[in-house]
Amino acid sequence: MEKMNNSENMDNINMERIKEKLVEAYTKTAQEYGGKRNEKFDAFLERELTHFVDSVKQIGTRIIDVGSGSGNESVYFKAAGLDPVCVDIVPAMVEECKKKGLEAHVMDFYRLNFPDESFAGSWMSFSLLHVPKSESGSVIKEISRVLVKNGIYYVSLFEGEGEGLRKEDVKKFGTERYFSYYTQDELEKILLPHFEIIKSERLDISPRPTISFECVKKIHHDGKIPA
Q1: Contacts of 65 (CB under 8 A, 6+ apart)
Q2: DSSP 3-state assignment of 129?
Q3: How many domains does the chain have?
Q4: I need a surface site. Which of 126, 134, 160, 205 has the fewest CB within 10 A?
Q5: Domain-embedded: residue 56
Q6: How confident is the model at residue 7 (pLDDT cuts 50, 70, 90)?
Q7: How many whole angstroms separate alpha carbon 173 and alpha carbon 54?
Q8: What is the pTM of this model?
Q9: 225 part of a folded domain
Q10: Spatial separation of the C-alpha atoms in residues 95 and 199, rounded to whole Å
């Protein structure tokens, strides 16, 4: 199991600094983001996208792509008949989404500016990993809030242990990025208060394995949504 190295601990930084560094890093790479792929990962992603689309279509078509980057997956969703809304903290990424004909908003996913139960599904590919673990539960709760009853939530990220600023990112991105790595059991524990898990996957790939979960919004027997 890979552990976080060369990182600055969460105790020494704050949320605004984390967000500022992410905006700086991804502004620099917005136009080329997602261009280089791995064939093994591409095959995995194709299966994940297809399963998510099939699951969501049983409920509705409007979805939110949380931390959408330049909107590559939402292009797929739109072609598959869904109605994606992209949100990202990086204005340059949102502009790339709009160039692709996607609805997109500059937005902090710690507080999504949408009414309750606005979406049939939420796709969150490699963006929860930029959230400190102390905040991940509140982010997942916020995503649950904007999903309809039985709404579908997909999340994927790198498997590992630890969290912090990655100093090795400076060469490519001009600044550190914050990463939180999870084991499958660890991620499952923060999902279960708000979601029932449909399926989980693990792709053993270099430089780090990918783990993913597809979930259904949890409703108590009394019809209430978990607080």
Answers
A1: 71, 73, 74, 77, 84, 85, 86, 87, 122, 123
A2: helix
A3: 1
A4: 134
A5: yes
A6: very low
A7: 36
A8: 0.89
A9: no
A10: 33
> Measured over all CA atoms, what is the biggest interatomic distance in the chain, rounded to whole angstroms?
53
Q: Which two three-digit tokens encode residue 105?
A: 């908003």
| Helix (H) or strand (E) run with residue 53 in it | helix 39-57
Which of residues 36 and 43 earns the better pLDDT score?
43
Report residue 183 as tokens: 């084991």
At 194, which helix (H) or strand (E)? none
Place of tokens 């949890």: 218
The token pair that represents 63 in the structure block: 């979805």
In a domain, 223, yes or no: no
Mean pLDDT of 96-103: 96
Confidence check: pLDDT of 227 > 70: no
Measure Cα distances from 181 to 26, 49, 111, 120, 195 in Å: 19, 22, 22, 27, 20
What CATH number is given to the structural domain containing 51? 3.40.50.150
pLDDT (0 to 100) of residue 11: 45
pLDDT for position 96: 94
* Residue 138 three-state SS: helix
In a domain, 116, yes or no: yes
* 186: containing domain: 7-30+39-135+148-217
Per-residue pLDDT at 20 exceeds 50: yes
Do 15 and 129 contact (CB within 8 A), yes or no?
Answer: no
